[in-house]
Amino acid sequence: MKHPLRENMEVVASNDRSSICCSRCHFQYCGAEQDWREFSKVRLLAPSNAGRLMGLLDGQYLMRQFYCPSCAVLVDTDFLETEPKEVVKRDAAPQECPNRPEPVALKLDGKTTVVLVLDLSARCEEPKEVCSLLMEPVGKFLARAREAQVPVIYTVSAAGKGTVLGEVAQPLKRKATEPVLSPDAFDKFMGGELKTELDKHLCRSLVIVGSATNFAVLYTATTAARVHRYEVVIPLDGVNAKGQYEHEYALHQLTILPAAANKQFRFTKLKMIEFA
Amino acid sequence: MAVHSIVSSVDPITFEILSHRLYQISKEMGTALERVGGTVNTTQMHDYMASLYLANGDVLSAGDAMGWHVACAGFAVKRIIERFAQQGGIYPGDIFLLNDPYLAAIHQSDVYLISPIHYQDRLMGWSATFVHVMDIGAMSPGGNSPGATEICHEGIRIPGIKLVEQGKLRKDLFDAFINMTRQPVMVGLDLKCEIAANNVANARMQALFEQFGPETVTAVSREMLHYSESILRKRIAEIPDGSWSETGSINAGDTWNVHATLHKKGERLLFDFTGSSPQAKKGINLPYHATFGACYEAILYTLAYDLPKNHGALNTIEIIAPPGTVVNPTPPAPVSLNTTSGGATAKFVANSAMMQMLATSDKWRGEVMALDAGHRLARHAGVNQHGNYYVSTLSEGALDGTGARSYRDGDDTGHGLSSHNIEWLEANFPLLFLFRRNIKGGGGAGKYRGGTGSESALTVHDAPEGKIRGVALGVAGLRNSGQGIFGGYPGAPSLLMLTEGACVEEKIAQGKSPDQLDELGGQSRLLPYCEFDIQRNDILYMRVASGGGFGDSLDREPERVFKDLEDGVISREEARDLYGVVVAGDGAEVDQAATERLRADLRKKRLEE
Q1: Which of B361, B493, B551 minimises the CB distance to A7?
Q2: Any chain A CB within 8 A of the CB of B555?
Q3: For residues A222 and A227, what is the distance between their CA atoms, to the nearest angstrom?
Q4: Cβ distance of B604 and A52 shorter than 8 Å
Q5: Any alpha helices (H) in B510-571, and if so which ranges?
Q6: CA distance B560 to B490
Q7: Which residues of A, range 170-199, sit inside 8 Å of B by Cβ?
Q8: What is the pLDDT confidence band of residue B609, given thresholds at 50, 70 and 90?
Q9: Strand intervals (E) in B266-350
Q10: Mean pLDDT over residues B433-454, rounded?
Q11: Could you tell me if residue A249 is left (phi over 0), alpha (psi between -120 and 50 degrees) or otherwise beta?
């Protein structure tokens, strides 16, 4: 004798015992008087795994799924509030660059790609500045981009007008047709000028290079992904920061942004980018 | 309606005729409400109730009205009998008004009008209606008051008055009532449509008594209750005994839980709300009779959907709701936000427990569906483009997607109530809708997916004061919307978001449609329970609930997934990640082999991690 318990699960009675079984593979979870959840395979996932629009719950809730341990059919999905101490524990745990992104080769459509160079001003011509390390590799990359007719846009510090901070570094060989914007914020989308420029080029993929990773790159890339939903390409050797820690935590932050913004990012290296 | 099959003293043909006639009378009462009413809640949203009661206040015929109001109006009839049988009397042509949430109403805005039905001077029964009036003189325009911490902040509270005395309107009471609201003319119309509907009931019942005689009508009425109760008890008895639980939550700084356990034994059902949170100093609290009504509704729309809707169903259930909790508050706990918060959550947990119970029955498991745990919605008020002060509502919540069934997908934007017509809204209020459309990726994944809800955005336009006032209500937090069942994923959370300082007018001046929020800039914030201003270039974005999914999403037929992709309901990534469906490179069809491989990999991964 048997009767259903829920989708893909039933209560089977034989002799003097009733059991809860998988109605698909007949796996026996437990006795009818027991809680089948305790005998299921369980996974905890970020809510954004339930779809892009569930990303708002990331960090506040965990999605819990129960499967048949034998045939893996999904039998229940529920949500748990994340414990505050869990969050603290996660933050406080000693970690060496968690979620260190692995660079992958990319082939980008030159017609819908724009290169954004953040704050590589004339100060980067000084060898003591960490951003000076980007001059050669980024300069070569920009040359390739220009060859492929990929538009290049620069930003410099708003406060630096009239100083070296207000000019694009010479080694990058900026063309007169390449615009220079100076929004007064870490997030270079502030004021709307950058978005207007990107719209002119029908931008869908935005390659971001520049310095520092933990300021202009972090905040601008976040808005690009979260608000404007661009495919955001970060060449790991095209951005840097004052210290390795600052550089890596900023990259880590991009990999865990909620609301599925983290899924907008592609991590690569300058030489691994090809324009089609 | 089912065929009358219980042994009875009434012949089956007369039973069927009268049973349908009573149902049609309550339906016609609803039509009268819509035709005489002047406010959008009644005329467009159908947020009303019209039903008939026996002389003792037991439900006789609920028509198509909202089940929990049918139960609550029954409590109201009994309270009126208690009060006026002792003092004031109950006479032909009387109509009583009651809106006290600690006696029978759900919150003050739901105003019950109740009329005795006499035949040859003998009390034979009652008719009752409610409409959600446009204002009730509370702290916040429209009645739902986020700032209220006690019921005295929430407007007029009437334990029972005789508004119409033997056919004559008590103008002194009528004027006193409407003048305590912000919208006396509109509230007056609300009350008059209720008077009209009760008059319709009385006239039709008189004709019924004349045609069939009071003895036959009374016999059929008793038989209808007996019939519904007998069939329902038999159905309950067929289901295996057991207990099932569910919890829903409301989050607005604090979290309030509504918890219910349904115990089924023999032919009885007991809903036990023990474990629910203590009552809140926020108007989410649901009075006991409304909690009772929520459970009654859960029965009506599952096991009794094809039976005459009457007191027979009530006789099969018991409710335990501990005093001092969000499901049985004690004065002076506020209640004004409750229908769309504590009420929505109580309905969700009661129905969810019912669904779990039905799933254990071979006969009834086909009726299982994923359920909605509520949504966000708003009211608005201010001076309109015609120079008049107004209060109204934004019923975007009526565009919820419904939950998936055990045999098919949920309906897109298919909620029970109706939503407002946008052109009508823009013609009457200083609003400009930027868009109203189906949400992409909103419905919960599953073997059958949830229906997708709507999203809409508006700004103010031609507002003499340059702004209007909004009130945010509903189930606050992110755990509202459709909930998946038996492995199904939830629908996207329902949101109210205010974006201030966007470039709406600039976009319009450029001749472009401002229908992409990403392109409009501004500073955005999610709205908790609050009042807020909407000014020029501000945007109120409203995303309502989408339905939850049913069953394992990897069991969904790949062709259905592909159709969803073609229809723009889901993205290619969601087809791959949620359903394990791979589309061939040219996008023209499902890659069956790759899909099978991916699904096998995903199942393997479930057991590995």
Answers
A1: B551
A2: yes
A3: 8
A4: no
A5: 558-566
A6: 19
A7: 192, 195
A8: low
A9: 268-272, 317-320
A10: 95
A11: alpha
In A, minimum Cα distance to B502 occurs at A192
Domain boundaries, chain A: 2-88, 106-275
Chain A CB contacts of B519 below 8 Å:
195
Are A8 and B551 an interchain contact pair (Cβ–Cβ within 8 Å)?
yes
Give the pair of three-digit tokens for residue B395.
């019923």
Mean pLDDT across B159-179: 98
- Counting DSSP H helices and E strands in chain B, the numbers are 14, 22
Residue A42 pairs with which residues in a beta bridge? A66
Facing residue for A51 by CB, picked from B361, B445, B607: B445
The identity of residue B374, as a single letter, is: G
Q: Please work out, in degrees rounded to the nearest 5, the angle formed at the alpha carbon of residue B487 by the alpha carbons of B481 and B493.
A: 15
**Token duo for residue A237:** 């050797």
3-state secondary structure of A112: coil
- Mapping DSSP to helix (H, G, I), strand (E, B) and coil, where does residue B272 land? strand
| CB B482, CB B443: distance < 8 Å | yes
Would you call A220 helix, strand, or coil by DSSP? helix
- What is the least distance, in Å, from the CA of A147 to any CA of chain B? 29
Residues in B 251-270 with any Cβ partner in A closer than 8 A: 255
- The pLDDT-based confidence of B536 (bands split at 50, 70, 90) is very high
* CB proximity B553 to A under 8 Å: yes
Cα–Cα distance, B573 to B570 (Å, whole number): 8
CA dihedral over B100, B105, B111, B114, signed as positive or negative: negative
Mean pLDDT confidence for B524-534? 95
Round to whole Å and give the CA distance between B78 and A204.
66
Per-residue model confidence (pLDDT) at position B304: 93
**Residues in Cβ contact with B586 at an 8 Å cutoff, skipping those fewer than 6 apart:** none
What DSSP character marks residue A216? I
CA distance readout (Å), B92 to B61, B165, B199, B454: 21, 9, 11, 47
Q: Low-confidence residues of chain A, pLDDT below 50?
A: 84-96
Instruction: Name the residue among B437, B248, B416, B478 with its Cα closest to residue B344.
Output: B248
Domain A106-275: CATH superfamily, name plus number: Isochorismatase-like (3.40.50.850)
pLDDT digits (tens, 9 = 90+) for B217-229: 999 999 999 999 9
B598-602 contacts: CB < 8 A, separation 24 or more? B599/B554, B602/B554
Q: Assess whether pLDDT exceeds 50 at residue B397.
A: yes
Where exactly are the structural domains of chain B?
A: 12-230, 369-556, 557-608
Q: How many residues does chain A have?
A: 276
For helices B342-358 and B288-300, give the axis angle rounded to 10 degrees: 40
Q: What are the pLDDT digits (tens) for A191-224?
A: 999 999 999 999 999 999 999 999 999 999 999 9
